[in-house]
């Protein structure tokens, strides 16, 4: 069996306790306007073009078997629908301006890579985090990975939007030590309107999970200007966490680290010009969360 992944990040310290390896799976049912990993949304290789590196030599144009690349006004233009992801352009680009993100990798190869750092997990009480995208989109691959890590006695965290069938989550609870549960808004309607996800299902799954394993849940709340960065909205999310008795809440300040990816994917970024937030900006909200008896912090 294989999983479609973007990368395996080693020595991560912000996606669960201790030192961790993060396996990024492709596929996500949500379309959050601020998404920092737009290359994760579809389960297929994503063509990334870095215009700043490009020397306009035309090598990719000449070598593309689909004739899906041309030069117009001294700029490369890609017919992404015609692209068959053969990587001829990537392999022949002398400047490294083109690369594809997303490969089908065997479960065994992923596990082998992750196990390289097992001594660090043991020393730091770390492990592996499976992120995305939404890992539950590739449910069979996720289940296979969890079984392997369980056999190897590796602690596992899963970052999830909660937008999946409850049965999928329920069946895997015994294999997951930490649920990093993303929650963007306190109401189903707002979740659906902004993210295009199934807001009712997300909130229902959160409640069901909390009824079974509240100690495993960390609510992760991306705090985004012009969307949910207001005291009333974030306090309501914190109140939900308090009511459900989740383990902790992480308020994640908005950042712009993923903006360049949109240009490289040929996509528009809706939040251009939005100001980044700092941990200090969230201090009052963090204090409110801690006053409710839940460990609350800014950042992961």
UniProtKB/TrEMBL annotation:
Sequence ranges assigned to domain Radical SAM core in this UniProt record: 14-295
GO molecular function ontology, one term from the record: metal ion binding
Reaction(s) catalysed (UniProt annotation): glycyl-[protein] + reduced [flavodoxin] + S-adenosyl-L-methionine = glycin-2-yl radical-[protein] + semiquinone [flavodoxin] + 5'-deoxyadenosine + L-methionine + H(+)
Keywords: 4Fe-4S, Iron, Iron-sulfur, Metal-binding, Oxidoreductase, S-adenosyl-L-methionine
Sequence ranges assigned to domain 4Fe-4S ferredoxin-type in this UniProt record: 45-74, 75-103
One Pfam family from the record: Fer4_7
Cofactor dependency: [4Fe-4S] cluster
Family: Belongs to the organic radical-activating enzymes family.
Protein name: Glycyl-radical enzyme activating protein
